[in-house]
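Quick one - inputs below.
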Amino acid sequence: MSLARRAWAIRRHALLMGEVQGQGYIGQALGVADVLAVSYFHAMRYRANDPEWEGRDRFYLSIGHYAIALYAALIEAGILPEDEIATYGMDDSRLPMSGMAAYTPGMEITGGSLGHGLGIAVGAALGLKRKANPAFVYNLLSDGELGEGSTWEAVMSATQWKLDNLIAIVDFNNQQADGPSRAALAQGAEAPKWEAFGWFAQEVDGNDLAALVTAFDAAKSHPNPAPRVIICNTKMCQGISFLETREQTHFIRVEADEWSKALAEHEGKKPR
Amino acid sequence: MTIPHHSRRKSKYEPRTAAHGTDAVRTSAMIASLDAEGRETIAAPFGHALVDLAKTRTDIVGLSADLSKYTDLHIFAQAYPDRFYQMGMAEGLLMSAAAGLAREGFTPFATTYAVFAARRAYDFIAMAIAEENLPVKIVCALPGLTTGYGPSHQATEDMAIMRAMPNMVVIDPCDAVEVAQATHAIAAYNGPAYMRLLRGQVANVLGAYNYTFELGRAKLLREGGDVLIISSGIMTMRALDAAKVLEKDGIGVAVLHSPTIKPLDQETILAEARQNGRLVVVAENHSVTGGLGDAVAKTLMTHDVFVSLRQIGLPDEFLDAGALPTLHDQYGITVERIADQLRRWLDQ
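Output:
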């Protein structure tokens, strides 16, 4: 199955979950779907029937509110059953609105308090090296998290420990809770900052599957003993035209009757 | 109700120069070990205990945020350099990385000062470690009033903070014997733990009491018919000494040592407090807000044990800087001040 088809399916799962709860973080899910498609269907090693397989690549989601996006990817990857979509955000569901490790197979860490994921990833990458386990640790973080000092503590440490098994993925959609990230702390060109700290940094169009594949391949195969970052410039609500043009906010407003409209438009875009 | 007037702290001292003389100069140095008060001491009990443990426990790793030498973790680092991680002056990272190592099957001992763990790194401990019940052992020096450096280094509220965190075990050891035993005990416990650390040359107090630390257990070190002191940490050492002073006056003071602040040994505390006629006093090297005193009070009240209860501890204030003997006297936690206080309460 093509990556385009995988990304399409991830968006569809996310839209269906969004409809269950009227979930405004659908904007982020649609935006990051291509990144997740390349992560789960090109870059990462895992076993769908054994989410805690010791040889798996670890995927740490810092941004708890992106859970809707990761659940969609985990469903598409066969780690979660598709029929749990209807339980999203419900009492006793394994799919709570904010991602937590104790609830969901494949959800490696408890995110939500931002600026934690990269530091935990540093520890896990150190642990994998201790065990001579060749797996990678991926950490998906947001542009808003670049404002957290703890993120930069981890950035420095990853370089100090030469964590070439750590791949940070920054979803740069320039949208945090109060407005554009660029109007807050995410100022200036992003990649040079990471390079200055000793990382192998790439910046790509995060909605261009071919560019993402190239970037993930380069991140995995880069020869230098340095941590790697892929800064993915994504578009909130990517793929649903009437949402793309809606005022871009952290938590987009979707009326109850618009979910079916979005799903209908999406159905028409199904790749072969 | 009276609302206290709040003003900025400002110096209450006149300028002091060498002309005042140097005969009474006492150090507020942070590096100095707590005054052992003439006792035998044991060097770096935590560091040596961890080295012993690590011989068989290959899962144990050590991390520090630029304070390994000041938390006795350098002993471990020297013995096992490849199992020691210097995380730099970054306490959030220290805790997050410890969580990551724990996720990969290791048992990390993370050290810093108690103020930095409890205050600065709280969210990282809460979400990365405690919420996931990971076996990270947080071992922190300078508990309560064990430095004269002032509020930046005096962890007077760390037990209150850590007690409130779900899943966290909180330990306040008394001496070198207990630091070593508790290090083994928290390593054997499969969950997060916070231990207050006495470092450097640490007094041997409990060696004379045939004592063995058990996680979650309070133990009676001394019998006495007039007062029951329930204490933790270095205040047990002070309580034992105050009991000896009062013994000469014919006052019987029992000392129940409760080093595990959470989970509290309610059963033993209730059994001792139910013995009629004794004044119950909680003594702790911690603010009177939120520590062992509050924990004991709640335990007694919610089990319908109504006794006269008093607290010896640090005030709910940012404390002064100065030499430790001066400060311990000022805040009423020396042996003499404790004995005097007990006499006054008994006379009332």
